[in-house]
Amino acid sequence: MASFASLCPHESFTHQLKRLPTLSPPLKLTRVSHSHRRMLQFPSAAMKATVTKGMIAETQSYKESAFQFEEYMAEMAERVNQALDDSVPLRHPLKIHEAMRYSLLAGGKRVRPILCIASCELVGGDPVAAHPIACALEMIHTMSLIHDDLPCMDNDDFRRGMPTNHKAFGEETAVLAGDALLSLAFEHVATRSTGVSADRVVRVIAELGKCVGSDGLVGGQIVDIASAGKQIELSELEYIHLHKTAILLEASVVCGAIMGGGMAPDIERLRKYARYIGLLFQVVDDILDVTKSSEELGKTAGKDLATDKATYPKLMGIDKAKEFADALVAQAHKELDYYDFAKAAPLYHFADYIAYRQN
């Protein structure tokens, strides 16, 4: 097998170290030490930010706003679930469509499609225009879960409190169900997108292709496999998760902004926001894996520890990993400063939701 260095040519990342901020109440974030700041890295010099008193005041404002995030999530998830149900009707060959629906409709928080719709609305777009791409993103996410659970990958038996796809339908069908969902995602965007220009549709298809390919999810996954059983640096772990996990959240936010007619500055701001919450998602996931039970998570807990997998708690310690999560929340909030609170409220709350989720 090729060496890790040959699979992970991102040395420039390690030379672009930026200080991550701490934030005083109301978020009650802990203070990040100077040495810890030096450890934390991001792939773009443009992602540097500082926390100001104004930001703290604005954070207080959105916290005290009347926006009902839980109601918003429930309503949006119901819409997404209905759209997903309609997108994969049962038909011949019955077994493959049953397998596709089994994982696609197995619940979940629908974070990616809701982020897509929220970013579309933020830039002034019609949320309906983002529905096809939102469904496509969930199809791709589901594909990644099906394949990730396979015995040749993470070898998980449970997902969302249910037997994984290969346990329910067999490995051969699980592989094909994932493949079919990936293909359907692109078809769905191309054939169901209405009310937007062809240029926007082409741009989101390109964004999808990049996020799932060798420069995205697949790239992160192969480097993750290559690092198994090895001692890796924090920068290498960051590369894995910016590509394996964060990239699909980034595509969700960016595609929504494109479909909503967002201008280049909007897309760049939201791309940065998405990278922060994407990395945050993985840091929190790693923390939950060692602090929660399988019943609480709806999947096998302690799997990373049992397989000696590199995680943020393992490389940084649990307390430092929590500090890192706090800092990422602050950075994500900072990228939303440009926008009106009423329009940006879902994305502000999303960052906190990802940071403080319990499963």
TrEMBL record:
GO MF terms on file?
geranylgeranyl diphosphate synthase activity; metal ion binding
Q: Name one GO cellular component term.
A: cytoplasm
Is Plastid one of the keywords UniProt gives this record? no
Q: Which Gene3D superfamilies match?
A: Farnesyl Diphosphate Synthase
Matches recorded under InterPro entries: Isoprenoid_synthase_dom_sf, Polyprenyl_synt, Polyprenyl_synt_CS, Prenyl_diphosphate_synthase
A single Pfam family it belongs to is polyprenyl_synt
What enzyme class is recorded for this protein? Answer: transferase
The cofactor(s) it depends on are: Mg(2+)
This entry's Enzyme Commission designation comes to 2.5.1.29
What UniProt keywords are attached to this protein's entry?
Answer: Isoprene biosynthesis, Magnesium, Metal-binding, Transferase
Keyword flag Iron: no
PANTHER family attached to this UniProt entry: FARNESYL DIPHOSPHATE SYNTHASE (PTHR43281)
Q: What is this protein called?
A: Geranylgeranyl diphosphate synthase
